[in-house]
Amino acid sequence: MKNIMLLTSALLAAAFVWAQAPNKMSYQAVVHNATGQLIVNQSVSLRASILQGSANGPSVFSETHNPTTNSQGLFSVELGGGVPILGMLSAVNWAAGPYFLKTEVDPNGGVDYSVVGVTQLLSVPYALFSGNGVPSGGGPGQVLTMCNGVPTWTTGGQCPTATIELACSGVTLSGSLVQGVAAGGVSFSVPYTNGNGTAYSGVSMASSGVGGVTAVLAPGTLASGSGVLQIQVTGTPTSSGMAVFALSMGNQMCTLSIPVGVNGNPGGGSSSCSNEAVLNPNAAYGSLTDQDGNTYKTVVIGGQEWMAENLRASHFRNGELIPIVTNNSTWGSLTSAGTCWYNNDSATYHCPFGKMYNWFSAVDARNVCPVGWHVPSDSEWNALIGFLDSTFLPFANGDQSMTAGARLKTTGTQYWASPNLGALNSSGFSALPSGYRFNDVGNFINMGVSGGFWSTTPVLELYAWCRGLNVNLDATRRTYGYKQGGFSIRCVRD
């Protein structure tokens, strides 16, 4: 039996009790007069209404009663058994709530009613609700409770704790996989919020891409609030490619992806595109692997670690394909992610120039850069240029530094056209002249002459900041490009 206390004025203090019998609800009240004295052994009038949606919502049921108080000023009635004014209690669709009980009383037994309370009905007995035949679910002893505005079957009227929220965009990956080699030390870390401190069952997820590997979430207990789920990858990959796992928890799913390499090259894909004609032989290079298994050289410049090669990824971090757009008019009208190769010729330009991306790819929430890396903002580009040239102009719209370009460009004329003025590549950044794809007509220009790189920072509605280098300049240019244009992407470590 479910008890609900109603808020009333000085005229009435009431307790509201759900009846066990279907289609009726027991209501009890103690009646006082205006001076606070009990009204005993006297006939009073009650008008009860069910309001839908809000405390001022329309009435869907109303009836009157004329009970007599006892020696303690108490009266009892069964709502649903009075003199009907509007509708029937049995016809109320409790699933279309919330609902509110409005009570009006005339302590003199007449029809001069005063409103003494409007209170939300937070639960409905199973027997009464199921009498309507809607909706399915629930069971004997349960009540339909409004939880965050949604009718929910509960026990004892207690709403369930908030559902865990997985932060899929914040997933991090440790370790790598190679075809034919048993996984070791490979794991995903999945952040979450709204943990409720309860235990959860273990989950085993088979890969939908590469066979032979499984992602395992061991049984555990959620933190109260924020926490991290640790998922171990086990097994031996039977092929190269992309191993994809689907983690489902709290009515939410995260796609977890890890590339599988071949021949001792963790991550599969293509090996580094850089060679002696591109890199600085005196620089110290690291390496990373993207979501497709492509490997890249990396270099630390100042306090940042950058890719020393242009991005070549064909998939977002979650495994979804970045659309390859070859049609010129389609490219020019995009307002979502798109990628291509210069002149739509992957065989010639994939290595070492990488792929071209529009700005929408650079800022897509699915992440074009590998785990632990991101597309730089305008301020992160400024940090790079400022490290190379302390006299740079951080807010320039044009030549930002007259010398940093020389320190960024790869040397020689194998990839840059002559004269490749001033090129030193002293930073090890190894910038290449990958050209540009127009935003409107979608055609390609300036291969061998200039190279441009996206930032994530927009400028007004149509543009975003980028950095540009030219065969005839030592300078680095800070300018804005059309978001539909095609530039290279260099990722920077988080």
What does this structure look like?
- By secondary structure, the chain is mainly beta.
- 8% of the residues lie in helices and 39% in strands.
- It contains six helices and 36 strands.
- The strands form eleven sheets. Strands 13, 14, 16, 18, 19 and 21 form a six-stranded antiparallel β-sheet that branches. The chain has a five-stranded antiparallel β-sheet with strand order 7-5-4-8-9, with no helix packed on it.
- A hairpin with a 2-residue loop joins strand 22 and strand 23 (252-261).
Percentage of helical residues?
A: under 10%
Shape: elongated
- Strand-pairing-aware structural class: mainly beta
Low-confidence stretches: 1-22, 130-136, 263-270
Proportion of residues in extended strands = 35-45%
Cα-to-Cα separation, first versus last residue: 56 Å
Number of beta strands: 36
Question: What does the radius of gyration come to?
Answer: 35 Å
Number of helices: 6
